[in-house]
Amino acid sequence: MSSGIWRRQFLIGCAVILGSLVFPHIPLAGPDVTADRSDVQFFEFQCTIMEVHPGSNYLIVGEKRIELVDFLKGDKRYRTILRNAEGETIGLSSFKKGQWVFVRGFMLSKGRIAAREIYQLPAMAPRSDFYPFFKNVPTWGEPAE
Predict the structure, then answer these.
(1) Which homologous superfamily does the CATH classification assign to the domain defined by 37-143?
(2) Theoretical Cys-Cys bridge with 59: which of 24, 31, 66, 77, CB 3.0 to 4.6 Å?
(3) Whole-number Cα distances in Å, 52 to 6, 26, 41, 43
(4) pTM exceeding the 0.85 threshold for the entire prediction
């Protein structure tokens, strides 16, 4: 082989090695949202909305980034459930800065939170039986289209 071919192969090899050192997460890239309950930390909390980002599908609630999810797993589609205090489905644009919300979700990487459900509340609510969704967790996942 000529020295030009060896030089090109050497440069390509160096670029691949350098790329894997600079961007180590790319070969492992993939969704970090899951429907498997065995490997996630679930939690719920009430707080006020600090920011609403409808174009990017997330909220800042209590200084935490709450991401809306929409993904397929098998034959089911999992989407964040958005409802008002009466249990009626609403859109993300219905949420406003300063409103109280109840969030049920799970942790993602880098401290982000994937929202399973977000309920818009008229004010801070006691944690007893004030709203049925505090105790009743609805079925999640609908047949994929």
Answers:
(1) Copper binding periplasmic protein CusF (2.40.50.320)
(2) 66
(3) 54, 29, 24, 21
(4) no
